[in-house]
Protein: Putative N-acetylmannosamine-6-phosphate 2-epimerase
Organism: Arthrobacter parietis
Amino acid sequence: MINLESLRGRLIVSCQAYPGEPMRDPHTMSQVAQSAVIGGAAAVRVQGLADIEQTREAVEVPVIGLWKDGHDGVFITPTLRHALACAKAGAHVVALDGTRRHRPDALTLQQTIDGLRAESDALVMADCGSLDDALAAVAAGADLIGTTLAGYTGEREKTVGPDLELLEQLSAADLGRPIIAEGRISTPDQARQAMQAGAFAVVVGTAITHPASITGWFVNAVEAP
């Protein structure tokens, strides 16, 4: 089991490629993860069983693993079966949908976490969308609380940049769990703001590991009238 204190005040890099992209390859993603670690990442977050397996072999930092299945509703490690598979693939931390929404296998979040603990020593990161989600996830036994789904579940407006208000709410609630800021963090300044708002650690993905999006940002700036 990893020492969560090793992540305090640190950067976690999400290494994911979208379906159909040239970089959507487990070996490529493991190389991206290695590069992130060279740059100072304290942990990496990867999607897909093969990506988890290869990244676990390629880096010595904690691997946060998830399995996206679908595109709408609950699709981030949506069932106990998905969670167990991520743990078996080698994830130190299994990231899963931590909202209060109905899960595809009809299990509650607590039943999912209990089922995972019964067969694995992996920690659980609950990807939440609101303060109420976070409170429920803590009660269900989650080890880390992420703001990953803020603005995507209908409970909160999607902010430009990270949802700093939610981070402040979570910090003030004294959840007794590390709060991981994730979602729409595109600049070092935004990452710093997330830490100042109470985050334990910050996850950055697209702005570091998604060349198509980064290229698009520069194209838009260069070609602007």
User: Anything to note?
Assistant: The longest strand covers residues 11-15.
